């Protein structure tokens, strides 16, 4: 499945679903973003169980600010609505595959317990 474009209006709804959501913050003028785009698109085709989403930082400046984006591309990974990874910089195909596997292998009960402990 091809990546979906998301905006400030549907960001929270998109990342809050159960399962894995990868979000690529990008801009058309960004060389590393253009290099990462085909890697992201190919992974999307190989992992239909994962939601692949893109945020155009030029069109969604408010969302980018709210997400703390200071460098692009930035890739965020959410699982079951919890942010579990965020990193700036283009990633190669092997790195993206490793990330997907690592997010799939997370013990979400442990992650939820750590989130709850940080909140209290």
Identify the notable features of this structure and list them briefly.
23% strand; 5 helices; 120 residues; alpha/beta; 42% helix; five-stranded mixed beta sheet
Radius of gyration: 14 Å
Class based on secondary structure composition and strand pairing: alpha/beta
Strand percentage, roughly?
A: 15-25%
Mean pLDDT: 95
Please provide the ordered H/E string of secondary-structure elements.
EHEHEHEEHH
> Biggest sheet, in brief?
5 strands, mixed
Number of separate strands: 5
Distance between the termini: 39 Å
Runs in which pLDDT lies below 50 for 5 or more consecutive residues are none
Number of helices: 5
Biggest β-sheet: strands ordered side by side in the sheet: 1-3-2-4-5
The percent of residues in helical segments reads 40-55%
- Tell the overall outline: globular
What's the arrangement of secondary structure elements?
Layout: E1 4-5, H1 11-15, E2 20-26, H2 31-46, E3 51-56, H3 61-66, E4 74-79, E5 82-88, H4 93-104, H5 108-119
3D structure, described in words:
With 120 residues, the protein is α/β, with parallel strands linked by helices. The protein is built from 5 helices and 5 strands, in the order βαβαβαββαα. The protein has helices at residues 11-15, 31-46, 61-66, 93-104, 108-119, and strands at 4-5, 20-26, 51-56, 74-79, 82-88. It has a 5-stranded mixed beta sheet, covered by helices on one side. The longest helix has 16 residues, at 31-46.
Q: How would you sum up this structure in a few lines?
A:
Helix 2 links the parallel strand 2 and strand 3.
């Amino acid at each position: 499945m091809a990546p979906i474009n998301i905006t400030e209006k549907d960001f929270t709804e998109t990342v809050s679903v159960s399962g894995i959501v990868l979000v690529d913050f990008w801009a058309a003028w960004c060389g590393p973003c253009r290099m990462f785009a085909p890697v992201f698109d190919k992974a999307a085709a190989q992992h239909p169980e994962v939601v692949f989403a893109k945020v155009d930082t030029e069109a969604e400046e408010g969302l980018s600010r709210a997400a703390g984006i200071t460098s692009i591309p930035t890739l965020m990974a959410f699982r079951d609505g919890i942010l579990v990874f965020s990193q700036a910089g283009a990633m190669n195909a092997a790195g993206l595959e490793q990330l997907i596997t690592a997010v799939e292998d997370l013990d979400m009960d442990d992650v939820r317990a750590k989130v709850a402990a940080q909140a209290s």
